Amino acid sequence: MNGKTITAMLLAIIALAFTSCVDDDSFDNQHEEKSFSLHLALNDMQGTRSVSETSVDSLAVLLFDASTGNIVSSTTRRSVTLPADINIPFSFNNSHDMAVFAVANYSLAALSSVATISQLKALTMSISSAADIADGDNMVMTASDTIAYKADLSQVHDTLHLNRSVAKITVNLTSNATNHVYLYSCRLCHAPSSSYIYSADSDTGYLDFDDVRMSDWYATSYSADYYVLMNNPGNGTAASYAARTFDNSPSGATYLEVRVRHLSSIYTNRIYIGGTTPADYSIVGNRNYTYNIAINGTTEQDVRVYGPTISIDPDYNVDPGWVDSKKMLF
Fold it and tell me: Alpha carbon 87 to chain centroid distance?
């Protein structure tokens, strides 16, 4: 075999290899790496906690195939100041939507083992005391969205607003001195000590806040703020706010326990918190619930709750109305 023949064979082999590479590139273009551009900011959380959270210890962004629920890509950051812009490279099949989830101030080790949306939604958070929510640093915040796939392979852009996983409950109490009714004590009871990070469903465990005894024997007004985890105890059977009693309320519901003094007796009022309808007892994160409660006597009809009024999210406001509490002799 002469030199010319060898040269021709080498050229043929090179040409064949080049053709094969071209064919592979054409196929891989269907899975070309793209950059998902995400702008993360805080939702309007004014008043829902007593601390600022523009700085987070950790941040994780996870992308999933919306049709299968399987993870596509993820990225993590530490010591992030919000708002922040994050670019996430990924390869994604044609004609698929993406589900994007952002989690702040959660264990990056736990998030690193997540392979599906179901596994992500099974993650929980917990507290050991009520003070952990009011004053603790770096509470969990989350956001999520579904993004339609861009067929032209251009950059995908999205904005997510992180929401707190806690709510604030403001209580304003008054009693009627003319009827010799005075405030004795107040506390919030049966608040979740753990919940899922992406839903208001409680995991396990509840806690009661400290019972605050009035310093004034003739107290007629008292105000308090409570910070609680999300709670979704399910619906009750109450057809009206006046029927939100112990018997008609779900076992996991959060309630306010207000004791009043009348002459030589102490009476206990159990006032259920949450929801926007009589049967709904849910407490949604990133909300500020306000209850103005007037206790005028010692019968069920003498306790009036003006509320709930809910601020922070304009789409979640409800009209205030008069509601009755359940009365129990203490």
Answer: 24
Specify the pTM: 0.75
pLDDT tens profile 204-221:
688 999 999 999 999 999
DSSP string covering 7-63: HHHHHHHHHHHHHHHHHHHHHHGGG-EEEEEEEEEE---TTS-SS--SEEEEEEEEE
d(CA 239, CA 134): 33
Cβ contact 112:58 at 8 Å:
no
Amino acid, single-letter form, for residue 235: N
- 313's tokens: 């999210």
CA atoms within 13 A on the CB side of 117: 16
State how far the Cα of 6 lies from the Cα of 171, in Å rounded to an integer.
Answer: 92
Question: What distance in Å separates the CA atoms of residue 169 and residue 322, rounded to the nearest whole number?
Answer: 18
Asked if residue 201 lies in contact with residue 247, where contact means CB atoms within 8 angstroms, the answer is no
pLDDT of residue 268: 83
